[in-house]
Amino acid sequence: MGKKKKGQNQKQKRKQAQSGSNLQTLTLVTLLVVFLGLGVYAIVDTFTGSENADQAHEQPNAVDEELFAYDQQPVQGDREANVNIVEFGDFKCPVCKEFEREIFPKLKQDYLDNGQAGFYFINNQFIAEDSVTAGIAGEAVYKQDPEAFWKFYDAIYEQQGPEHEHWATKEFLVDLAKKTVPEIDHQKLEQAIEDRKYEDEVRKDKSIATQAGVTSVPVLFINGKPVPTNKTFDYNYIKQMIEEELKKQ
């Protein structure tokens, strides 16, 4: 009897050990499946830019256009046009650079050169402190020569350095201006950057962005109506918004 009982106990222990091992294996497999599932979701969500993710982004609201203070902002196209397009941008933003390359030329060709719209740039310089320095330089160029601003705008995006490096220095900006806008007074520009003369203007623009609900760059508004942030590079969508505003004339 003692031997039989002992054998039964050993079998029971083996079963318990096997059961524990199976449970541990099942737990590990379950965790692996969960992590793999999360990983796949993250990859798909990142590379497909799913609509759900886009909808989760905070969207600006429509605003009263008086907020934008058009008369104080650089404009390309017709300042008296019935369609006003606003870009909130940061000169250090690589996505803003892509917008300037891909979308802005189409807007210029279709609506700015023929006077159907005015395109305004408003600072939302927040990536780094030298973003503000670049914004000050832009304001200084604009104050000297409004037309020169847009050449400087193109050039600074063209020569944009890495987002996380401190490249928008006084020396870089003045040298860039000498090469691209020789018609302005570069000594005055250098002094304006050194004294941070137009920092208040850059900060005021940032305040406008905040009041408009802008939390990223680039962000567009057309006659006070925001272009959804997931449509910033959808030119057909932007064009449709503009055409709808033109029909109201």
TrEMBL record:
<dbReference type="GO" id="GO:0016853">
    <property type="term" value="F:isomerase activity"/>
</dbReference>
<dbReference type="InterPro" id="IPR012336">
    <property type="entry name" value="Thioredoxin-like_fold"/>
</dbReference>
<protein>
    <submittedName>
        <fullName>Protein-disulfide isomerase</fullName>
    </submittedName>
</protein>
<feature type="domain" description="Thioredoxin-like fold">
    <location>
        <begin position="72"/>
        <end position="234"/>
    </location>
</feature>
<dbReference type="GO" id="GO:0016491">
    <property type="term" value="F:oxidoreductase activity"/>
</dbReference>
<keyword id="KW-1015">Disulfide bond</keyword>
<keyword id="KW-0560">Oxidoreductase</keyword>
<comment type="similarity">
    <text>Belongs to the thioredoxin family. DsbA subfamily.</text>
</comment>
<keyword id="KW-0472">Membrane</keyword>
<keyword id="KW-1133">Transmembrane helix</keyword>
<feature type="transmembrane region" description="Helical">
    <location>
        <begin position="21"/>
        <end position="44"/>
    </location>
</feature>
<dbReference type="Pfam" id="PF13462">
    <property type="entry name" value="Thioredoxin_4"/>
</dbReference>
<keyword id="KW-0812">Transmembrane</keyword>
<keyword id="KW-0732">Signal</keyword>
<dbReference type="InterPro" id="IPR036249">
    <property type="entry name" value="Thioredoxin-like_sf"/>
</dbReference>
<keyword id="KW-0413">Isomerase</keyword>
<keyword id="KW-0676">Redox-active center</keyword>
